[in-house]
Amino acid sequence: MEADEFRRYGKQMVDFIADYISSIRERRVLPDVYPGYIRDLIPDHAPVEGESWEEVFKDIERVIMPGMTHWHSPHFHAFYPAANSFPAICADMLSGGLGCIGFTWASSPACTELEMMMLDWLGKMLHLPKEFLFGSKGPGGGVIQGTASEATLVALLSARNKVISASKRNSKDDVPMEKLICYASDQAHSSVEKAAMLGGLKFRSLPVDDALSLRGEVLRAAILEDRAKGKIPFLVVGTLGTTNSCAFDNIKELGEVCSEENLWFHIDAAYAGSAFICSEFRHLLDGVENADSFSMNPHKWLLVNFDCSTMWIKNRHDVVEAFSVNPLYLKHDKEGQIPDYRHWQIPLGRRFRSLKLWFVFRMFGVKRLQAYIRKHVDLAHEFEEQVKKDERFEVVFPVTLGLVCFRVKGSDALNGEVLRHINERGRITLTPTRFKEMYVIRFAVCSKDTEREDISYAWQEICYATSHVLAAGNL
Fold first, then answer.
1. What is the pLDDT of residues 91-119, one digit of tens each?
2. pLDDT tens, position by position, 276-292
3. Dist CA 254 CA 227 (whole Å)
4. Residue 97 burial (CB count, 10 A)
5. 363: buried, middle or exposed (CB in 10 Å: 19+, 13-18, 0-12)?
């Protein structure tokens, strides 16, 4: 494909994407295919001679679309939002076209410097303490990771290295790795436990209160108990907006305990973090001043498509010390004057992801982004009211942002069958969780194009499935 062909075929692809997103409501949100379906649609070997663009293009609809879960459909209410917008897609096109691998400042100065500026822009939108911003001229700053899971692993490995380095400086003895232990609530994302597993460290899940919040006294008791057993506590991960129910740990109390006990405190606000650009939700982030690192995902709820997980670190030297490997072929004459992001992450290479933030922030502006968040919250409350009006159902957890946890009054088996029936029909999709040992159904407002009629449509589907299951009378 040469440049002239790219102009023609690229326009065709842009038209396809625009048409797909504009008409996505018309597609069944869940695919109706069997495992291994693609093997029956394409050859089992690559072609010896290249095929034409026309042959490739027509197979998008034939091969790919039947197996797509349409995450951006207004009928998708599972998990959490997967953000998207046309400005972000344009930025991804530019990033792909430029093709830079921005592991050092010298490898692409624009890639590094725009990322630094965008993390400061977003940090100011969130009213983060100045210690987390490059503009403060201190040791803090922000970086784009691939996912919140990566950010948690980076925080864990940095905290581990900090403890080990301090021990060597003080006693010159190695810290026994098997004694290190980290903490999070039993509502925290599985990625916290996975990070500990990847780091070869012990993880302890701590119980939450009736509001599903991890409190300071529970953390303090666990630290004292583990120290008495000869273990070395080193990291706490607090969650703002849990995956299960959008619950919030008490980060004020957790941060105070971490400061007193000299533990690294990382805050994961993957979904909820975007809401903190709205003044009415910013209080949920109070206590971040005691954190060593903080992360949230613009690619969940801020109209920036995947992947773009932003992470701020109060002292970047703690991360650089843990991740710095500096062979001659990566050195350059401006080292030390400006960050080299390869020292802030697990991989070496990195894409020009800050372009997505730049395009979205400039074209939407803070006010339109705030309005978008507020609209989703309002739609969630509309759905909540529908649930409350029907005596067959109950809302089981307070609705704070864009997630409603509800259930049919009855057994777990009944609720599981209702959800199975909903998802089998494929017109909307929902996911389950557990709340105080009860099987609960999650309804999340996800698509940027969700409107009130989509909420009504989803409620009709839920009522239809519930009536069908109750009429069967087997549960």
1. 999 999 988 888 876 788 888 999 999 99
2. 999 999 999 999 999 99
3. 17
4. 10
5. middle
